[in-house]
Amino acid sequence: MGDDEALLRLGQRLRAGGYRFTTVTPATHARVNRRPGNEVARDLRDVFGWSRPFPPEVVPGELRELMLAAGVVDDGGQLWRSRVRFSSYDDELFVHSAFPTDAPESVFFGPDTYRMAEAATECLRARREPVTRAADIGCGTAAGAIAVAKRAPHAQVLAVDINDTALRYAQVNARLAGTGGVLPRHSDLLDDVDGDFDLIISNPPFMVDPAGRVYRDGGGPDGNELSLRIIDVAAKRLTPGGTLVLFSGTGIAGGHDPLRAAAADRLAGTGLDWTYREVDPDVYGEELDGPAYAGAERIAVVVLTATRSLTQ
Q1: Which ranges carry the Methyltransferase small domain (predicted)?
Q2: DSSP-based three-state secondary structure for 17
Q3: Using CA atoms, how far apart are residues 226 and 248, in angstroms rounded to an integer?
Q4: Cβ 200 vs Cβ 237: under 8 Å
Q5: I need a labelling partner for 193 at 20 to 30 A (CA). Which of 31, 77, 122, 288 fits?
Q6: For the chain, domain boundaries
Q7: Tens digits of residue pLDDT in 34-84
Q8: How far apart (Å, rounded) are the C-alpha atoms in residues 165 and 187?
């Protein structure tokens, strides 16, 4: 484990130098990196965005020293490789795992992160009552928690995860953003934290992943088990007027959405009013070629919101 102060300073130096990078899907990332001329990094976006191997001289000396101190560089001799990426969202920088995110402790950031954070901030804009306590379940980089904290600066926002690497990055990212209300905590869902919440947000793993990678596999035959567990937790821990914003995904087979059907069963009798919508009806199309989604006609990403009445 490297020096968190060095990792923080690395992010600060990149931001001060005008670094920006929008992270794409893994499939797009791989396609772009396969193009002729993209084999080796030529600038900082190639190093910290595209995760390309780089000659040490491509990175200024101060940044190289910070990478070494933070323990986020593989020194391969003539070519080095960063173990982290830095991505832009909401005028902030977020550190997360380098591409490809194959390791079990990988911390993912990508288009779904942007979508989830937007759904969370949309919910905040629609609320009449202020948020005083919120939780980001499976926080990863804490992008969602930070987006909430920036808009509810007096709120306590717990960023919970079971991945120690995610909690390290969440802490660094919260300091980079200056959001002191974000509190990273090790917890399996909300099992290890107390109290109720005005807002619960989550972008859990939702894929059917034969490799069983923690950051990707949602559990159960349809990849929806973790999403359903979060619905159960929220039904017990939301305050009156509190809302769950769940960003997830689901394989559609024969026009049937198994997540919507299962969510309806879980929410029945809870007294929560809920909505469910597809944010994008066709994502991760490359997964349809594999056995896990052999029966699916498409994979959709969705947002479920569930709100407890103020009178309950």
Answers
A1: 130-246
A2: coil
A3: 10
A4: yes
A5: 122
A6: 4-97, 111-308
A7: 999 999 999 999 999 999 999 999 999 999 999 999 999 998 789 999 999
A8: 13
- 3-state class (DSSP) for residue 204: coil
Distance (Å) of CA 18 to CA 21, 73, 102: 10, 21, 29
Query: pTM for the complete prediction?
Result: 0.95
Q: 109 near 90, Cβ under 8 Å?
A: no
Rounded to an integer, what distance in angstroms lies between the CA atom of residue 156 and that of residue 161?
16
Alpha-carbon distance of 292 to 2, in angstroms, equals: 37
Q: Look at residues 153, 150, 263, 247 and name the one whose alpha carbon lies nearest to residue 204.
A: 247
Give the burial class of 220: count Cβ atoms within 10 A of its Cβ; 0-12 exposed, 13-18 middle, 19 or more buried: middle
- For residue 234, give the amino acid letter: A
> What DSSP designation does 18 have?
T
Alpha helices by DSSP H, listed for 163-250, are 164-177, 225-237
Domain spanning 111-308: which CATH class is it, in words? alpha beta
pLDDT higher than threshold 60 for residue 1:
no
The per-residue pLDDT for 276 is 98
* List of E strands, 177-262: 182-186, 197-202, 238-252
**Distance of alpha carbon 152 from alpha carbon 175, whole angstroms:** 16
Tell me which of 22-26, 127-131, 183-187, 262-266 is least confident.
127-131
